[in-house]
Amino acid sequence: MSELSAQKHSFQAEVAQLLHLVTHSLYSNPEIFLRELISNASDACDKLRFEGINHPEYYENDPDLHVRVHFNKDNKTLTISDNGIGLSQQEAIDNLGTIAKSGTKDFMSKLTGDQKSDAQLIGQFGVGFYSGFIVAEKITVESRRAGSEQSEGVRWISAGTGEFEVEQINKESRGTDIILHLREDALEYLESYKVKQIINKYSDHISLPIEMQKEVWQEDEAAEGEEPKGGQYVKTDEWEAINSASALWTRSKSEITDEQYTEFYKNLSHDFAAPLAWAHNRVEGSTEYTQLLYIPSKAPHDLFTRESKAGIKLYVKRVFIMDDADNLIPNYLRFVQGVVDSADLPLNVSRELLQESRDVKTIREGNTRRILTVLDGLAKSEDAADQEKFKTFYSEFGSVLKEGLGEDFGNRERILKLLRYATSNNDEISTSLVDYKARMKEGQKAIYFVTADSLNAAKNSPQLEVFKKKGIEVLLMSERVDEWAMNFVHEFDGTPLQNVSKGAVDLGDLQDAEEKKALEVAAEQFKPVVDQLSEALKEKTKEVRVTTRLVDSPACLVTGEGELSPQLIRMLKDAGQPVPDMKPILEINPEHPLVQKLEGSAQFDDLANVIFDQALIAEGGLPEDPAAYIKRINSLLLK
Ligand code: ADP
Ligand code: MG
Question: Rounded to 10 degrees, what is the CA torsion of 28, 29, 30, 32?
């Protein structure tokens, strides 16, 4: 068969439009052509594997599937060859001349005709086979379908304009050669180091070997008695794989050792330390994917900065798509590192598409559940090593996990189960809500907690006094995130949670009728003092009232139900956020001598202000006018 029989064909209209774009747009990321072509080669080998099940003869004594990349500097060609399924003449016409893929169709429908914005779009999508035209002025495809006669090969040639030519050829080897005739501005792809670098970056985990010809250094010939002046690399006939050719996560768990998992993690994360735990699963269901997720043993330094990124790499059918695929894991699990390999996402998926994808949503939910399950397993384990791991995890990442209370309502209960706190009975940050509930007093209807700026402030908070007196345990929350996170939590396992510095204390059945009566009496008796205080402090407080929550302190500040607490207000102010002007409620202890002194005092005003400012200091704040505070104290001391 000869050139005489070559037939001209026109591209489908959309292809012509696409090619025009590819060749006329400044492609932001030209090197992806190699990823696309290698992925096609790998697909072709996958197809042969599949068809070969029923047609072993398709292997034609050439059973080792591979992709080979070679270049010819003289001809300025770069060739990607595979010994996969190959193309028949009709398939070449159909598959390379029209657009069948949904991804590309989708892409075409988004084109605006405006060159600049379209060029941006193209960078996001990737365009499969046609991406070859980013670097090639002409592409020759030579192929022969597995199992067909050698004389039934096909040559497909196009310069990426309106048409392509197809002719029948003799082709000895099965499979496809994609020969790129490189443009003058793309000759860098004739450098083996450059090509290797790209393959390592994008295709290392293709499970087929990607081979290049081995090169050896050959010195220039030198005149007698002289040193050679230089030399060059020359290609040998030997082929060597330049990728590792086996994606760890595609192997079955039983074949992988802990060392291998650890090594893979270190490579992936650039972490020197071994991970705490990992989860490796193949998930089947509405969408199919493999997850290999790691929990590191140490928080990265930037965990709390805005730049901190999720460390999940996304693969589609073993082809690397992107780093830091933050759509695959919620923000509060951003410390998780690993790989997700989807069988369903399109190869040309962009970050923008990821956001909208249903599959991605399913994967994210699956990843979240898996990590929470692993953590739960560590927390519940009887094994001392696991318990130690959970402790390490919690001290490194506990505060990030807490963000989940506000972010992931669906998993709130599961997250709550993993949280640990110090309590008024135990300084160690080890009490879970489950433990707390088990220790609740008879008649206790709520889980009590207090938030403060530090553990000490929480522990010594005046609001805790009545709880201590009655021996009721209170959870101490002293991390920055607590105040915010607890806004989203109203109950755990059917028991309400109550912030003891918010609203009136309702001890329910823990308070007997006598105590309730005493409060009423005190409120009645102290009414004139309360009124006078309200007047004296009207700039500073919203309300003054009598309380039974205090034992040793004269007064404390509380926040109205549903209002921002003083800590949260301070946090927002520190962050430069506008804060609503909110005044706290002052509660006074009718049993306290200082409070009792108020009635008829000649220094009522000084005393009132000092009591207020002290309550402010007790919960970590500062008097608005420290100098005035000191003056008042001193004047009282001198009396
Ligand atoms: P996709 O890979 O998403 O199908 P491409 O544009 O990358 O889209 O490729 C278009 C089609 O061309 C493929 O579906 C396949 O039928 C055919 N093709 C491309 N490269 C090869 C190859 N190396 N071997 C066999 N067929 C190929
Ligand atoms: Mg493809």
Answer: -150
**What is the DSSP-derived secondary structure letter of residue 502?**
B
Structure tokens at 517: 């009566």
Q: Is residue 397 part of a domain?
A: no
Residue whose CB lies within 8 A of the most ligand 1 atoms, among 95, 164, 317, for a mutation test: 95
Q: How confident is the model at residue 101 (pLDDT cuts 50, 70, 90)?
A: low
Co-location of 67 and 156 in the same domain: yes
What is the domain-level CATH number for residue 608? Answer: 1.20.120.790
User: Are 505 and 518 in the same domain?
Assistant: no
User: Which H helix or E strand runs over 181?
Assistant: strand 175-182
pLDDT at 125 over 60: no
Together in a domain, 458 and 349: no
What is the pTM (predicted TM-score) of this model? 0.66
Is 621 annotated among the ligand-binding residues?
Answer: no
430 and 347 together in one domain: no
Kindly report the CATH number assigned to the domain that includes residue 459: 3.40.50.11260
Domain boundary among 509, 540, 560: 509
Say whether pLDDT at 310 is over 80.
Answer: no
Residue 622 token pair: 């500062």
Query: DSSP character for 129?
Result: G
Question: Structural domain of residue 122, as residue ranges?
Answer: 3-241
Q: Do both 363 and 431 map to the same domain?
A: no
Element (H, E) at 51: helix 32-52
Looking from the CA of 149 toward its CB, the CA atoms found within 13 Å total: 4
Residue 208 has pLDDT above 50, yes or no: yes
Whether the pLDDT of residue 404 is over 90: the answer is: yes
Which residue ranges have their beta carbon within 6 Å of ligand 1?
36, 40-41, 43-44, 82, 84-87, 95-96, 101, 128-129, 176
Specify whether 452 is located in the same domain as 529.
no
Q: Is 125 annotated as a binding residue?
A: yes
Evaluate if residue 271 carries a pLDDT over 50.
yes
Residue 246 in 3-state DSSP? coil
Distance from the alpha carbon of residue 85 to the mean position of ligand 1, in angstroms: 11
Task: Name the 3-class secondary structure at 509.
Answer: helix
Q: Looking at the structure, do residues 214 and 257 belong to the same domain, yes or no?
A: no
**Band (118; pLDDT cuts 50, 70, 90):** low
Among protein residues, the one with the nearest Cα to ligand 1's atom 17 is 95
pLDDT on residue 3: 47
Over residues 399-425, the mean pLDDT reads 96
Amino acid at 354: L
Does residue 394 belong to any structural domain of this protein? Answer: no
Residue whose CA lies nearest to ligand 1 atom number 20? 40
The mean pLDDT value for 245-263 works out to 86
pLDDT, one tens digit per residue, over 311-341 is 898 988 877 778 788 899 999 999 999 999 9
* Residues 307, 159 share a domain: no
Would the annotation count 351 as a binding residue? yes
> Can you give the pLDDT at residue 324?
80
Q: What is the pLDDT of residues 231-250, one digit of tens each?
A: 888 889 999 998 877 778 98
Query: For residue 600, how many other CB atoms are within 10 A of its CB?
Result: 9
Ligand nearest to the CA of 127: 1
Residue 33's CATH number: 3.30.565.10
Single out the residue in 509, 524, 555 at which a domain terminates: 509
Is-contact 371 293, C-beta < 8 A?
yes
Q: Say which CATH number the domain at 317 has.
A: 3.30.230.80
What residue owns the CA closest to ligand 1's atom 23?
41
Structural domains counted in the chain: 4
Pocket test for ligand 1, best of 14, 18, 40 (most atoms within 8 A of CB): 40
Q: Please indicate, yes or no, if residue 53 is contained in any of the structural domains.
A: yes
Residue 198 confidence (pLDDT) above 60: yes
Query: How far is it, in rounded angstroms, from Cα 159 to Cα 141?
Result: 12
Q: Is 101 marked as binding a ligand?
A: yes
Residue 408 lies in a domain: no
